C-alpha cells in the first residue's frame, strides 16, 4: 500500500462530521441556559412559544430546499412541497380565498409576504402609487424603496387605524394613477384593523376602478379566522393579496409566513427556469423547507378546535391584563379581536426586562397563547412601579 493511501482519508468516502469540540459544546450549553432564562419574560412580541417541534429533528440531516413553485414540478426533489401545498390550502380556506383563484407559498416571514404583494401590485400597475398609513410596519417603507415604487404615507389615528379622511382626500387628488393600498389587518403597535369596506367604498365613490389592495395580516391573519365576529379581513372583503407570519400566532422556531395572491396576478410574474426545472414564482430562489413542515405539523397537531381555543385563551388573557392594569390605575386598552394590550410607555429598564416594544408614548404587551396570568401579573407590577416612579 502506498504512503498516500495510509495517510490520506479515502477520497471516495465522505468523512463523517466530527462532534463539537468541548469548548464549543460548553458555549452552546451556556447559550441554551441564556435562552431558557429569557423565555419567562417573553411577553412583548407576538411570537407564540407554546410548541415543541423536536419530533421533526430527524429532518435536520437532509438538504431540504423548496426552491421554486410548490405547485409545480422541480428537478430538485429533496423538498417539502407536498406539506407546503397543505399549508397554503389551510390558509386559503381560512383567509376566505375563492376556490381555484388564488396561489400562495410559504415565505420567510411577514416582510417577504408584504414584498410579494406589493411586487405583484407594481407589476400590474407600474405607474401605481402605494398608500400606507404611518402606523404600518416599518418594513413597508423599505419595500417601497426596494421596488422603486412611488408612495404616499397617510396619517394614522391615535387608535392605530388609518385616518380615513386623509386617505380619501389624498386619493381624490391622485385619481389619474392606480392606487396600491396597503391595509393593516392588525397593525404592529395597536393591533388595529383598517376598514377594508370603508376603503372600498371610497374607491367606488371616487370612481377609481384600477386599484390593488394588499393586506398585512402578520399577526391577526391567524386570529380573525377563529373569532365569531371578525372585522372583514380576507379575500371575501375584496383584497388582492395577503401576508401572514407563521412564527407569530401559530408559532415556529424560525421566522416564516404565508403569502397568498390572486392567481391571475401571479401568472403575470411567473418565469420558467431551466436550472431547477421549475416555475419561478417566489421572491427567493432557495427557500426554507423546514418551515412548511413545522407549520403543517402545528396545524395537524392543534386542529381547528385547538387553534380556536388558543385564540380564545389569548383574548381572555388580554382582558385579564387590562383588568390588572386598571387595578393599578393605569389606562390600558385593546381593539376588538386583538391580543395587543396598549398602555403608557414605562421606563427603559422595564422595556428591556420584558422585551417590550415601545413607540413614542405607548408600549404594548401581546398576550400570545404561551403567556400565563403569572407572567402578566409580574410584568404589570413592574410597569406600574416604573410609571409610578416617573410620576405618571
Ligand atoms: C403588522 C406587521 N407586519 C409585518 C411584520 C413583519 O413581519 P416579519 O417580522 O415576520 O417579517 C410585522 C412584525 O412584527 C408586523 O407586526
Note down, in words, how this protein is organized:
With 392 residues, the protein is α/β, with parallel strands linked by helices. It has two domains: 21-51 and 303-389, Aspartate Aminotransferase, domain 1, CATH 3.90.1150; 58-299, Aspartate Aminotransferase, domain 2. Helices cover 39% and strands 15% of the residues. It is built from twelve helices and twelve strands. The protein has a seven-stranded mixed beta sheet with strand order 1-7-6-5-4-2-3, sandwiched between helices. The protein is globular and about 75 Å long. It starts with a helix and ends with a helix. The model has no long low-confidence stretch (mean pLDDT 95). The structure holds pyridoxal-5'-phosphate (PLP). Residues 109-111, 137, 139, 187-188, 216, 218-219, 245, 255, 257 line the site of pyridoxal-5'-phosphate (PLP).
